[in-house]
Amino acid sequence: MSWLDVISPGVQSTVQDAGRQGYRHHGLAGGGALDIRSYTWANKLLDNPRNAACLEIILGGFHGVARGQLQIALTGAEAPVAINGNPVQLWQTLNLNDGDELTIGHSTTHRLIYLAVAGGLDTPLCFDSRSVVVREHVAGLAPVKPDDKLTALQPGHELPSRFVPISCRPGMQPDVTLRLVPGYQYSLFKRTDILRLTTSVYTVSEQSDRMGFRLQGPALASPPAGIISEGIAQGAMQIPGDGLPIVLLNDCQTIGGYPKPGVVPSLDCGALAQQLPGANIRFELTDLATVQNERRLFEHHYHQTRWCQNGRSLAWL
Questions:
Q1: Burial 259-284 (b: 16+ CB within 10 A, else e)
Q2: Which residues lie across from 72 on neighbouring strands?
Q3: pTM score > 0.90 for this model?
Q4: Could you tell me if 165 and 312 are in contact, meaning their C-beta atoms sit under 8 angstroms apart?
Q5: Which residues contact 261 (CB under 8 A, 6 or more apart)?
Q6: What's the angle, vertex CA 207, arms to CA 251 and CA 61, rounded to 5?
Q7: How many angstroms separate the CA atoms of 61 and 57, rounded?
Q8: In 3-state terms, what secondary structure has residue 74?
Q9: Where are the domains of the chain?
């Protein structure tokens, strides 16, 4: 058995997988990794199952010591990383020997870093998921704390060096444009407000977390009145009475009473979740078929490609 002794979890570190499905009618959030691209590539580097649990580290500051042989991968926001004081890069596999110290410094440009181990993390499975939703206080699912042991499901064995091709890495830009798929309440919004929403620049508010990101900027002038509370989904854009958009993320509540012009697709939600307060956000309209096809291709690529011997590219099966 191999594990990582946690010396410091940083600002906050939680175990996340692909999230839980089919439990929202019980009032449970889906949870799961916020940045799907970075999370998925961390697992792909290690040939892990698609939904393997990994560590989502907010802003860095993590420090751990390997016990036994461990194979890990790091992706996400750029931050200084070192093994025994020697700098290493993200977006690659790393082999840790017994006693090796892993330190991840603080990211100053983006929010989320993902640490995967070979086979995935062995933590309690509740409601078909290992994902931690902090506000739900589910027994056994809590943020990582000092002295915790992060155990790998797979026995340690050295892996070849692999690097995510630069062309496949999500762009870590200071400004992002998010797509919006119109929803069935889209027609309730005045055309002038939709035009304002899709031509204005918004900024990420300090009041943003895993439940949702509040945006600041030009308010919609005449948002529709509140609606009867109804089920809501990850990515839904709510417009409260102040006319400023809120994009709901993985840990959002299961029902809400604010009108919604549309939904931000999950891959775009990952780009949003990486942004720090003050980052510029723009919106553009898209259609459901476009974002569905993109997600299908993303998932197909995970399951139908293998690493080439050089460890720097992939080939279709």
A1: bbbbbbbbbbbbbbbbbbeebebebe
A2: 94, 117
A3: yes
A4: yes
A5: 180, 182, 183, 185, 186, 189, 194, 197, 237, 239
A6: 75
A7: 8
A8: strand
A9: 3-162, 175-286
Nearest of 151, 127, 130, 132 to residue 143 by alpha carbon: 132
Residue pair 296/266 in contact by the 8 Å Cβ criterion = no
Please give the structure tokens belonging to residue 100: 């090796």
* 266-273 and 288-303 helices, crossing angle to 10°: 80
CATH 3.90.226.10 is right for the domain spanning 175-286: no
Query: Position 29: which residue type?
Result: A
Alpha-carbon distances of 44 from 38, 77, 224, rounded to whole Å: 10, 17, 44
For residue 135, the one-letter residue type is R
Strand order, beta sheet including 92-96: 12-16, 54-58, 112-117, 70-76, 92-96
What phi and psi values does residue 32 have, to the nearest 5 degrees?
100, 165
C-beta of residue 57 within 8 angstroms of C-beta of residue 111: no
- Contact status, residue 20 vs residue 124, Cβ threshold 8 Å: no
Token pair in block for residue 38: 């970075």
Instruction: Return the number of other C-beta atoms located less than 10 Å from residue 151's C-beta.
Output: 17
Q: Which amino acid is at 280?
A: N
Query: Mind listing the pLDDT tens digit for each residue in 170-190?
Result: 888 888 999 999 999 999 999
Q: Say how far apart CA 106 and CA 62 lie, in whole Å.
A: 8
Q: pLDDT digits over 7-59, tens only?
A: 999 999 999 999 999 999 999 999 999 999 999 999 999 999 999 999 999 99
Residue type, 278: G
